[in-house]
Design brief:
This protein is of the alpha/beta class. The strands form 3 sheets. A 7-stranded parallel sheet has the order 3-2-1-4-5-6-10, sandwiched between helices. A 3-stranded mixed sheet has the order 11-8-12. Helix 3 links the parallel strand 4 and strand 5. It has 10 helices and 12 strands.
Length: about 300
Amino acid sequence: MSATKTLAMTGCTGFVGSATLEAALGAGHAVRALTRRDMPAREGVEWVRGTLSDEASLADLCKGSDAVIHIAALTNTPDPNDFEAANVTGTQAMIAAAKAAGVRRFVFVSSLSAREPKLSAYGASKAKAERLVEASGLDWTIVRPPAVYGPRDTDMFELFRSARMGAVPLPPGGGISLIHVQDLAELLVALADTSVPKSAFQRVFEPDDGRQGGWSHKEMAQAIGRAVGRDAVFAPHLPAGVLGMAARFDRLIRGDSAKLTADRVGYMCHPNWVARFDRAVPAEIWTPQIDSEEGLKATADWYREEGWFN
């Protein structure tokens, strides 16, 4: 980056957001971070207490900032109606706060699921939020991450834990792209630079790990198996009906904390979640640094060292 910036960020206490906070501080920037709860003081960070529904807090967050990185989102819920308030209304509020504060640069973290909004309420909410960003009149960039993995992630962890037991159940055959959370974080910080090339403005990017054509589901399962120390894992493709039954069972066992929901089954069964080559990030802005084979192994090691497999 060309100079120190003050970045207004949402979602900093989450998986992607915490990595992005680290990347921003590592680049020498100051961060104003929205948080729902009290956080310990940290050099370079000004914690702003509030939520996406708190107009005063959002005004405070954006005041004096050079750019906004809007990461906060609801990705899973037992009630699909919750996605609208969190992902659509929340994004609308952030746009309004940025415009009121005179902040032009707006980086929005969406999802590949926005490509197929009819498959899930989550994807529909992200697609609707994207349209708000595109109509904002700001200098926006939309980033649609594929499957994000890395230390501290609780979603992909389910696959790592299954692989250790020798089996990784998969949705119907298809392809997927991966990206390490650190690579994604570095991209978001790079895009927040107000001197980023104009080729980044008014663009929708689909970054990945650099693996052309992505991974088949079985390739991904075997890679995760190798990461946890297994030469091979049993990786059966399960039909949508079976996954729907598994979602109902997960809800019975884990209640509102269930990882597999009917809404997630909706987009999991789509055959193509591979990042599109025509939406790749220009190399002069960013290139991925972490090979997924190595990144998956390092992630598995982190889970093991932190006792997550116990």
